[in-house]
Design brief:
heterodimer; A: 98 residues; alpha+beta; two-stranded antiparallel sheet; 21% strand; flat; B: alpha/beta
Amino acid sequence: MSFNSLIKKLLNKSEDSRSVAKKRLQFALVYDKLEVKDGMLEELQKDLVEVISRYFEIDRESLSLDIQRFEGSSALILNTPIVAAKHQKTNEKARDKT
Amino acid sequence: MDGKVIVVTSGKGGVGKTTVTASIGAALALQGKRVAVVDMDIGLRNLDVVMGLENRIVFNVVDVVQGKCKLKQAAIKDRRIDNLFLVPASQSDDKNVIKPENMVWLCNKLRKEYDFALLDCPAGIEQGFKNAIEAVDEAIVICTPEVSSVRDADRVIGLLYARSISPKLIVNRIVPKLVEKGDMLSHVDVVDVLSIDLLGLVEMDDAVVVSSNTGKPIVQQKDSRAGEAFTRIAMRLDGHPDLPIDDPMAQKSFWKKLGKKLGRKKQE
């Protein structure tokens, strides 16, 4: 790293575009390698929301689904804040409905 | 002994395949090898113009494959460099006129006649690409330090591996100043992401533009960093695989110079 970029880093904590590029690239390649069809992740997310909603009250909007790479293997990362657990009875009702 | 057929490919267009093919071909010929560069971009030929041989074309690679002429008749001798020959693409045909089995035959012919044959692959991963990689011995993948180009290179590398070809990488058009400023992927980043062997690093060099304007080979221009890089790449292909790869660096800054001097003093 040159002196100039060091100064830049100290003054400005935001990432340089080189690191941004590398991260975006790694992300894109994970998807490319898995050959995930466009829209498949969105459908999965819909299905997951439906299933999880039978057991928990969740904030549907803030649920996030991602594919990440850890040491050579790909992982599906689901992240959702839980508002409350649903009671058993409502669970059963929900199951009866479907 | 039979020669080697090497495809130069990239996936993405406009990253410098044609220039790299012409330059490495010229460098190999200057090193005393008998070299053919073959334009496989049927319908969109360019290698002839880059090499300044556009008005000498009589026959093309499609004619050779279809038996309308001999390989030797289609191979145009370079104006400046001995032992360098261009087999031009056809401008009026479609990529599908050449079949994979034609390529097996063509590559065998090339191996018999030349020490090295470099195939300039068309952009994309369709029939033209499939033809170009069908019967080669080795592959060179070109990318620039950009997200889109590296992504496409990854795809092409995957397709080559699927055909049991282990390609080597050239990172083209590196701007050392931008890399040091943190505004361009470095070759280390690129190699890290693609996990593939490096064949060479080529800096962005205005002389390449001049060279393609005039049709004079960049490897014959004096003081061209890119030209020098291509010469070294050619040496790596021709019996010196372990020739060190220079790390492109921006002009030494005051601080770096100072740091180096201090470092040297410490060593003494």
